[in-house]
Amino acid sequence: MAYWEDIFKKLVSHCKEYGFVFPSSEIYDGLGAVYDYGQNGVELKNNIKQYWWDSMTLLNENVVGIDAAIFMHPTIWKASGHVDAFNDLLIDNKDSKRRYRVDLLIEEQIAKYDNKISKEIERAAKCFGDAFDKQKFCKTNPFVLENIGKKEALCTRFAQASSKNNLEELHQIITDYGIVCPISGTNNWTNVRRFNLMFSTKIGSTADAKMEIYLRPETAQGIFANFLNVQKSGRMKIPFGIAQIGKAFRNEIVTRQFIFRMREFEQMEMQFFVRPGEEFQWFERWKQIRMKWHKALGLGNHKYRFHDHNRLAHYANAATDIEFEMPFGFKEVEGIHSRTDFDLNNHEKYSGKKIRFFDPNINKSYVPYVIETSIGLDRIFLSILAGSYCKEILKGKDSRVVLKLPPALAPVKLAILPLVRKDGFPEKAREIMDQLKVSFRCQYDEKDSIGKRYRRQDAIGTPYCATIDQNTLDHDQLTIRSRDTMEQEHISIDWLQKVIADKVNIKSLLKQIMK
Prior knowledge:
By secondary structure, the chain is α+β, with helices and mostly antiparallel strands. The chain folds into three domains: 38-72 and 214-392, Bira Bifunctional Protein, Domain 2 (BirA Bifunctional Protein, domain 2, 2-Layer Sandwich), CATH 3.30.930.10; 87-196, Herpes Virus-1, CATH 3.30.40; 394-514, 3-Layer(aba) Sandwich (Rossmann fold).
C-alpha cells in the first residue's frame, strides 16, 4: 500500500472513530457515496460555514446572502444549460468492469507529465545548488522540453475534442496516450458515453398534475433567479454579490476518495455582479481574496496552488481552481469563474422578463457579468482534516494522534477536566463549565486518567484543556494545556474566558484576512 493510501485510510478511520463522519445508513450496509456528519463533524462543518459566511457578508459591504429553495421551476435548468449539457463523459474498462470519467483519466495523464517535470527540476536544483537557474534549465533540458511538449499537445487535443463533444476523438486520445485502467492495467476500453448527472422527481398531488422537476445540481441558479429581487429590495448597486450556502445533488457515477466526491453535497457560492468589460479585473481580485481566505487557516501556504482551466465551461471566459494538497495529490477545493452574462441572459430569454441593471454612472441599462466563487463544503472539510491530521512520536516512545485544527474551527474549544472525581473537584469543574458554555463550546470529561483524557481531546482537535486541581479550590487557579505544544501554564479563573475567547473566535481568522 502506498504511503498516501495508508495515511488516507487512517484518516477515514479516525473520522468514524471520533464522531466526524459516518457511512450513511450503515446499519443497512450503507449507501454508496453518501455520508452522515457526526457530533464533532457537524460542529466543524458549521464553524467552516460561519467562517465563510462572515468573510463574505461582514468583510464585504456589498455582499448579501439568500437561501433559495432546492426545488425550482424545471425551465431554470433548461435555461442554465444543465438539461442539455450537464453530462459526464464515461468510459468502462472491460477487464476490471470499472467505470471512469474521461476527463479525470486524461487530467491524471497530464498530471503525470507535471510530476516528471517537477522531479527533474528538483534533482537539478539539488545538484547545482545556488547556481541553479530554473528558467534556463526548463528551456534547455531535453527531458523537460519533451514532457512539456507532450503535455501541451495533450492539453490542446483534449480541449479541442471537448469543445466539439467529439466522443470518438476522446476515446482515441485515451488509446494514443496509453492510458490504462488503474485496476486491471489494460486499455481494453468501451466507447465513450454521455450520462446526465441531474436527479429528477415529480411534484404535484395527483398523477395527472405531476410535473417533472430536478434536485438542483448547483446553488448558483437560485441566486440568478433572485437577482432582481435582491437588487431592488436591497437597493444594491453594481458591483455587488449574493452569497448562499446550500445542498446540491449530482448522480455521480464515479465516486471516490471518501467525502471528496459525493452524490449529496453542500456548496458555499457567491455570485458577484459586475459591469461588462470589468470582469477580468474582478476575476483576478477575487482569486487573491479567496486564496487569502484559505491560507489564513494556517495549514501551510505551500499546500495551496492555482490551477487555470485549459477547458472552459460553456458559460465561462476564464476559470481557475484553488487546489489543496490532499493525501492523494493536489485537488480542487474551490473554483473561481468568470461566467460572463450567460446565465442572466438565458433566464431573461426563457422567462420573458427583463433582467437588467440601470447604471446611473454611465446612464445605461445592461445585463451584468458575473464572477463566481464556489466552494465544495465537504471538500474544504476534508482538506482541513487532512491538513490537520498527524501522528507525533513523544518522549519515552509514546505517541499521539492529534488534529491540529485551526482553533476557531475546532468542534470543542475547551475541555474541562477535574483531576479526580472527588474532593469537590467535579463540582468546581461544573461551576466553571456553566460560566463558559454560553461563550463557546466546552466539553466536560472526568473518565480515565488525565493523560488519556488529554489524548482524547487531541484526537478531536480541542485546542485547550483546563484541569481543575487543588490549586483551583485553594487559589482559583487552573492549569491550561495547549494542544499543539502540550505546554501547561497556570492562570486565574477570571482570566480563563478572556484568554481562550480571543484565540477560538472566528474573528481571529477574519483579522488574518484583513491584514
